Amino acid sequence: MKIKFCGSARDYSGYGEANRHDIGALVAGGIELTTELPSFCLEITDFGKLGRLAMELEGRPLGYKIKILHLTPNLYKTYIEEGKYNIGRIFWETDRLPLDFAASAELLDEIWTGSEFNAEAIRKAGVTKPIYIIPEAIDGSIDIESIEPYIIPNREDYKFYSIFEWTERKNPFALLAAFWQEFKDTEGVSLTIKTYVDNFTPGKKLIIDQYIRRMQKQLNLKRYAPVYLYRGLMERDQIYRFHKSFDCFVSAHRGEGWGIPQMEALLLEKPIISTNLGGIHEYLKDGADAMLIPYTFAPVDNSRNKTWYAANQQWGEIDQAKLREAMRWSFDNQAKAKNIGKEGRKTILKRFDLPVVGKTMAERLQKIHLQLQPKNERT
Length: 379
Known about the structure:
The protein is α/β, with parallel strands linked by helices.
């Protein structure tokens, strides 16, 4: 079976990493691919073997009838191909897809998304095309024992950490407020954040510094537990080294299309504390393979992108008291928290390894392929 895959697999964004995972899963599922790789990021780095695979397959001549598009839906009009069966890989973070996304989704033949939350958000926006739940994938074959952690100044602490783009949706205020308020009188604990705003230029880095200073002034605490920032672009192997260097991943996000950093952390046996909304969270069990924090829905308020985040949408506001409780429990029960991380890795390998997701993709693609055959050629 021959497929064309179109997506931003050259980019460092979450979309880029999701694209690379999808390409790896399709190849693991026995699908013959050619790729089309539009790019939307300023910088580029080494994205590891899946990044190299995506680029090796680019422009490969292949007679295909099915095209998968893993891009923001506003770009579909540019990349949909007439005469082909077009599948959109759509993930979103609020309870309703943006209207321009929904209009573009109606141009597709079918949609693949990762969770029931996403499927409902797509339907709520008025999309009528068939929707199939196919989760994100990750390369479970990496040898986590061979990954060397970084030598870091806070290596003796119990080390919380997070990875996210600095946006309202990722809710850095709630994360920092919960950490600083819970551990204002506690020694031996720190939080490290790998982050960026849009790109990795000096001016964008300054925005984060200014935000943190304003926040500390607002909280007006006598003491702030240590917070470390890493604001540089990392290669794929460096990302895994970053995960390996810390003890517990934590996110106060307001909604995830999937949650790739959470999945990476679990792959490396790190316990995660995360808002129980969207994407991978539907596949996890609180207290067993993750620590999932409740939320309440609230109207979206996003100053950066009012085109996609609108007043008719809702996202989650994390229960900060429960977030603090989970962080304190993890600090006080480090061995038990570590066991949760080990169970999380088992879930990742069972449900999201490349061959597992690739098999699901291949089964759906085979049905489409048969459907597209002339009736006298079907078997």
